[in-house]
Design brief:
The protein is of the alpha+beta class. The protein has helices at residues 3-20, 23-54, 61-71, 74-93, 100-121, 125-144, 147-156, 168-197, 204-229, 238-251, 253-268, 308-313, 340-352, 392-409, and strands spanning 158-161, 164-167, 276-279, 282-289, 293-298, 303-307, 317-318, 326-334, 357-358, 365-371, 376-384, 419-421, 440-442. Helices cover 57% and strands 15% of the residues.
């Protein structure tokens, strides 16, 4: 039998006796099994109450998604804490062989917990799969002890750009850290934005402005921290910033213009979410203010993404800029047989019966505006406080109410009516028929 094979068997036997076939391995197994069942029972009792309490969070879906992702895996979180405490105690009061199994299980459980929680929080399924594959690949290399050789090989694959050494490891670290920090910054910004939106002391425009400034500041801070953590000299970015400035000067004028216009809109508070506006042929309510455009949703469900620059350079009708009250005018006519005083009283009573018409700001009025060719002409003016709910529909409701009220009161609404009399020529015997007369048409107007 070769000596190398004998030495391998002896070394394996020594390793098994030292690390596996000893009483401390059994103790570690007992610690792991007991911790698994204890943590499972503890999570089973706490998880329903904590999740029910978390469900009471309203208006902050990002925070709720993170909390729920942790709540549904409390057993593994408790197990990580349990194994970490056991690992610390064994490493302090025992030999390394007393803790190898606990340390290995702790690494695997922590890796599984982190990857599962991240893949549940990330909404993009493709990105979640990429994170899961890369995470398991790294932890597999770490568990096998191959992480250092692989990292060294990636670091050796480098090129020198002047005074900057650019390695594949540096690029990967920069990409991973930047993506993680920016994702965390966006998530934190969304949570803070939801908290700001709940404030009753701030105006809607100020809420949007503060939220956007917080998000931009967090993203810039996250990018700076990520680049500094990877060891990239930030002064080397001056060339890149100069290139970006040239690009802005040549091809990004509209982007920058819309961005600056968005900041101006938020500062001067000319429009805010919930306002009812008219811009050109577009009539609707503002749903959201973005850094590049304003989202306007119309009554028919269409959502227009209008560049911020249009709200600066074009005429905008804001129906609810300083007040939500809007006056609407409806024209109608009645026959000359009706009493105009009675018509005015009936019209005002009819419009007051409509729920959307308000008398808080001003009372409805009705005026006789002219003696038309076939009717007495009136204008009915009234106020509403919810222009976002539509203008055409309220006019239709008022006209229907006037029709019903006038019909019940016996007041007729005239329409143009023409009576045409046809005259035919008379034949004379033995004589030449006279030329036909022209057809006479006599306009007449009659009430309906």
């Amino acid at each position: 039998m070769p000596m190398d094979f004998v030495e391998t068997i002896n070394a394996t036997e020594v390793w098994l006796q030292r690390f596996v076939l000893n009483e401390w391995t059994l103790y570690q197994c007992a610690v792991i099994v007991v911790g698994y069942f204890v943590c499972g029972l503890l999570a089973k009792r706490l998880e329903p109450a904590l999740e029910a309490r978390a469900r009471t969070i309203r208006g902050n879906p990002d925070l709720l998604r993170v909390i729920i992702a942790f709540m549904r895996r409390l057993k593994w979180l408790f197990l990580i804490v349990w194994l970490w405490i056991a690992d610390v105690m064994l490493s302090r009061y025992g030999w390394p062989s007393y803790r190898w199994l606990v340390g290995t299980v702790l690494t695997l459980v922590a890796a599984w917990f982190i990857i599962v929680v991240l893949t549940r929080i990330i909404r993009n399924q493709t990105l979640a799969r990429i994170v899961a594959v890369l995470g398991w690949l790294y932890f597999a290399l770490y568990a096998l002890g191959l992480d250092r050789p692989v990292l060294t090989a990636l670091d050796n694959a480098a090129i020198n750009l002047g005074a900057v050494r650019l390695s594949l490891l540096l690029v990967m670290k920069a990409v991973v850290l930047s993506a993680a920090m920016i994702w965390l910054a966006v998530l934190t910004g969304n949570m803070s934005s939801n908290w700001i939106q709940k404030s009753a002391d701030l105006t809607p425009s100020l809420k949007v402005l503060i939220s956007k400034l917080i998000k931009i500041g967090l993203i810039v801070l996250a990018g700076t921290i990520a680049l500094s953590a990877t060891g990239i000299d930030l002064t080397a970015l001056t060339i890149f910033s100069g290139a970006v400035g040239v690009g802005i000067g040549f091809g990004l004028q509209k982007v920058v213009s819309n961005f600056i216009s968005g900041i101006i809109i938020l500062l001067d508070k000319s429009i805010k979410p919930g306002d009812t506006i008219t811009l050109g042929e577009t009539f609707g309510s503002i749903r959201d203010l973005r850094s590049r455009f304003v989202s306007v949703i119309t009554r028919d469900g269409k959502e227009y993404l209008i560049p911020n620059e249009d709200f600066i350079s074009q005429q905008v009708v804001n129906w609810s800029f300083s007040s939500d009250y809007v006056r609407i005018e409806v024209s109608f006519g009645t026959s000359y047989d009706s009493d105009p005083h009675e018509v005015v009283e009936i019209a005002i009573a009819a419009v007051k019966s409509i729920p959307r018409v308000t008398s808080t700001y001003a009372q409805p009025v009705c005026w006789l505006t002219g003696f038309g060719g076939s009717s007495l002409d009136f204008k009915l003016r009234f106020w509403i406080s919810d222009p976002a709910n539509g203008l055409t529909n309220i006019r239709g409701e008022v006209l229907m109410a006037l029709w019903d009220a006038f019909k019940a009161a016996g007041i007729s609404i005239p329409y143009p009516h023409r009576e045409i009399i046809m005259k035919t020529p008379v034949e004379v015997t033995g004589a030449e028929a006279p030329p036909a007369r022209e057809t006479a048409a006599r306009p007449r107007t009659a009430p309906r």
